Amino acid sequence: MTVSGLVATEGSAGVPVAVPVTVARGDGIGPEIMEATLRVLEAAGARLAVEEIQIGESVYARGHSAGIEPQAWESLRRTRVFLKAPITTPQGGGFKSLNVTIRKSLGLFANVRPCVTYAPFVPTRHPEMDVVIVRENEEDLYAGIEHRQTDEVTQCLKLISRPGCERIVRYAFDYARRHGRSKVTCLTKDNIMKLTDGLFHRVFDEVAADYPDITAEHWIVDIGAARLADTPEDFDVIVTPNLYGDVLSDVAAQIAGSVGLAGSANIGEHAAMFEAIHGSAPPLAGRDVANPSGLLLGAVMMLVHIGQPEVAERVHNAWLATLEAGVVTPDVAGPGTSPVGTRAFADAIIDRLGQRPVTLTPVAYPAGQQQSTVPTAAARPAQRKTMDGVDVFLDHRDRDPDALAAALVRAAEGAALRLQMITNRGVKVWPDGLPETFCTDHWRARFQSSRSGATDRRDVVDLLDRLDRAGLDFVKTEGLYRFDGEPGYSLGQGQ
Ligand code: NAD
């Protein structure tokens, strides 16, 4: 780890104190765009004390499977601010995604990606687009809890928590308010995933009530995504669970003009990471052609985050003035424009520090108004939890649902729980199944007691013991719980 200061850290009276920031130059085009970014920040008067760490290819090659060395965490924990250039992720098994590791380890729950068009200076089909995607960054299918349970079937757990929803949704509304935006759109698939995405939507509606000054709307993610791709100018701030946000933020950045233009902030309670959304573009490395704008705009978000909004404003407006002057890198050069290299582009921004754009709208980051806040989820009393029964998942190769039902009923003879239903991949196949339904070797058998809430954990253990003795191969169970009388499980008829 090397340490270099852009500005002295000593803070005698009246001298602004430099803020410690961890910086990684990354792989591919990373070192070039980081060099350009740091030069612009320094010229703009950013008060930063830079600590450099190594990440990426060379670190993977030294045997660190997540691409980061143990001692680098000390810097990240100390500075809590990370400006990160892209890295090249090695192909093949055994390597972990550095981004996912950092996000989860540091609890960076919000990924914020502004996707803005700069027409007519950057060609785009959507000249009015100005969308900010706020993506939940820790939960959903990205928990990485996957299992192969039978010969034919694998599963991935989708985990959505109420505190996780509250934090990201409140963050999105706070963001909208702080940045003078008027609408927050929530995208989920709660017509199908009524409990998980349904929770996200419900929390969205609850939190929206605290922000009467901001319009709140919800769209099912499929039609919402289609509208975003078609008429992005109809959107303002979008808040969405992890997977949809991952996909949609790339779509939004691409249709805004170029993935080379968008920066991204990953915000947590204890730390924050700022980067470009693009990768390390290995074919462009070392050629002085890469666009440093994505990383520079990530750095602008960092400056706001660390309380230097006046520097952020100076950099951002000089960058807009540079685009307006027709100075661009090759990736965004339109017909008839002669592009410049990475270094010359940074020099052009430095030359324009103090200028504001004339055609494009200048940015304003008023002091104290825009710094990120980290909302905390409201404490709630635990609800009364009772149990109606259990779903038992079975590995069973014989494809005859009636025969399986007969075997289960025989095995459960005398147990407190009775077989109610069998489904295969969520489709009911017993009782009254259709012979046309395709069945795999993975079955869900629902057992319930005759009275709601009357099931005891020992009833489940007794049932499993009986199934085991009958040679039935259960691969997992899910309790059928009620919370204050409300069922906490889907009805399981399939959709
Ligand atoms: P990429 O983003 O590197 O490149 C996609 C396309 O965009 C390429 O045509 C590239 O030339 C162009 N491009 C990207 N950034 C540019 C810039 N600043 N200026 C001009 N053109 C630019 O995506 P990829 O090719 O799929 O991935 C390359 C490597 O980057 C892979 O190893 C991937 O795993 C990694 N990656 C890292 C991150 C990260 O560190 N955050 C993110 C995405 C991909």
From TrEMBL:
Function: Catalyzes the oxidative decarboxylation of isocitrate to 2-oxoglutarate and carbon dioxide with the concomitant reduction of NADP(+).
Catalytic activity: D-threo-isocitrate + NADP(+) = 2-oxoglutarate + CO2 + NADPH
TM ranges: none
Any matching Pfam family: Iso_dh
Family that this chain belongs to: Belongs to the isocitrate and isopropylmalate dehydrogenases family.
Subunit structure: Homodimer.
Keywords for this protein: Glyoxylate bypass, Magnesium, Manganese, Metal-binding, NADP, Oxidoreductase, Tricarboxylic acid cycle
Domain Isopropylmalate dehydrogenase-like: 20-349
Cited InterPro entries: IsoCit/isopropylmalate_DH_CS (IPR019818), Isocitrate_DH_bac-typ (IPR014273), Isocitrate_DH_TT1725_C (IPR040978), Isocitrate_DH_TT1725_C_sf (IPR046997), IsoPropMal-DH-like_dom (IPR024084)
EC number(s) stated in the UniProt entry for this protein: 1.1.1.42
Domain of life, source organism: Bacteria
Major enzyme class: oxidoreductase
SUPFAM superfamilies: Isocitrate/Isopropylmalate dehydrogenase-like
Cofactor(s) this protein requires: Mn(2+); Mg(2+)
The keyword Metal-binding is annotated on this UniProt entry: yes
UniProt cross-references to SMART domains, sorted A to Z: Iso_dh (SM01329)
The name this protein goes by in its record: Isocitrate dehydrogenase [NADP]
Keyword Nucleotide-binding in annotation: no
GO MF entries: isocitrate dehydrogenase (NAD+) activity; isocitrate dehydrogenase (NADP+) activity; magnesium ion binding; NAD binding
Gene Ontology biological process: glyoxylate cycle; isocitrate metabolic process; tricarboxylic acid cycle
